[in-house]
Structures are given as structure tokens and as C-alpha cells.
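Quick one from the shared queue. A colleague (R.T.) flagged VOC family protein as missing a structural entry in our internal table.

Convert sequence to C-alpha cells.
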Amino acid sequence: MPTYTFAFGGFAVPDIDAARAFYRDSLGLTVTDEMMGQLSIDLPGGGWVLVYPKPDHVPATYTVLNLEVADIETAVDELVASGVEMLRYEGFEQDARGISRGIAANQGPDIAWFADPAGNIISVLQNAD
């Protein structure tokens, strides 16, 4: 097996300027311009993700980034106040805020989903204590 020295994830967007503004201004993450028109986004707890331009981008139908929070209600309220719209999914019971409650049912975290300007799906989630 290889010895890995570092790892990072990445995903595409069609509009780097819109992505920069969204991840920096709406989500409050640290965004750095990189070479070749790419962005790096610092992730809480360490690590980072590379965002690269792809004009013919088609968003994934799955979550590409999960952001863990201590208080999901506050996080969702703050995101909505910054203009983020929560997504609703068939097959998931979601409350008025768009939060699927897994902790009370012992079925995973409480989680809510939203999309970036490119349609990439992101979640905020709260794990049980």
C-alpha cells in the first residue's frame, strides 16, 4: 500500500466568483484564490477542499460537503438569514426549518441540506452528544 502524505477533496462549479462569494459570505468559510482559477476552502477542524471551474458542470445528486455544527437550529436560522434556502426531500421527514431529526429516533444525526449556486448539495448536521 502507498504511504499517503496528504489528502483533500474537490468539486466543480461553473462560476468561481459565485462560489467564492457563497462559501465566504453566506457560509462564513475561509476561501483562498489558487492558481488556474481555483479556490481552496478551509474546513473547520483542519483540511480543505478544492473548488475548480468547469463550464459544463452538472451538480451531483448527493451531498458533496457536510458541515458539523453544535446547534443545528441556530445554524439553519443563520444560513436562512444569509439567503440560503434549505432543500426538502421526499422520504425524509423534515420540520418547518427543513431539518430531518435523526437523533431523537436514534437514526443518525439531525441534518438539513442546501445547495450552493452551482447546485452542489451541502449539509449542516448535528451529531448526538
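Helices lie at 16-26, 72-81.
The chain is about 15% helix and 30% strand.
Added to the table.
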